[in-house]
Each structure stands twice: as C-alpha cells, then as structure tokens.
C-alpha cells in the first residue's frame, strides 16, 4: 500500500498564500515608538509652524514645477532642508534645546 498524500485544494492554498502575503505587509512600529508618540512641546510646535511659513520655504514652494520630476526632487529636498534650518534657528532664538543631534542627510541628485 502506498502512502496517500494530502494535497491542499487549490482554493485553500491560494487563501493561505494570500494570508501569508498580507501578514508580510503588516505595519511594523519602530523600536522607539514610545519616543515618537510623545507630544511635541508647544514651543517646538510654534517653531515648526514658523518654519513652514518661513520666507525661504515659501520661495522654494513658488519654484516647484510639478511637470519636471527632477525639479520636484531638487526643490523638495531644498525645501526640506530650509524648513529644518528655519526650525533650528527658531529654537535657538527661543533658547530651547535642539531635538536630535545629527545633521540631516543631504541627498544628491
């Protein structure tokens, strides 16, 4: 007598594969999620708002040309750096401690 193989029906195999794929795509919280979940101090929130509305950030927003992908990448990076710079300047003016301690990575295009 030969051993009988138990094959999964095709529908069950497809369902199992879909469940495994969905489990692999689940969101993962970073190890320091507790630190990221802490609310921002009011002074820092004010500086963030001031940075988003800084003249340099507004000037760069006017340079954006959504039809040119290279321009979108370049202006987006320059705008991100200008906003960080304006935020840090505001924090220094207010005499507040700076978050982090590492200069942001500058991407080249």
TrEMBL record:
Molecular function GO terms recorded: ligase activity
What are the UniProt keywords, alphabetically?
A: Ligase, Signal
Q: Has the keyword Signal been applied to this entry?
A: yes
What does UniProt give as the signal peptide span? Answer: 1-23
**InterPro entries for this protein:** TAT_signal (IPR006311)
Instruction: State what protein this is by name.
Output: Phosphoribosylamine--glycine ligase
**Native organism:** Caldovatus aquaticus
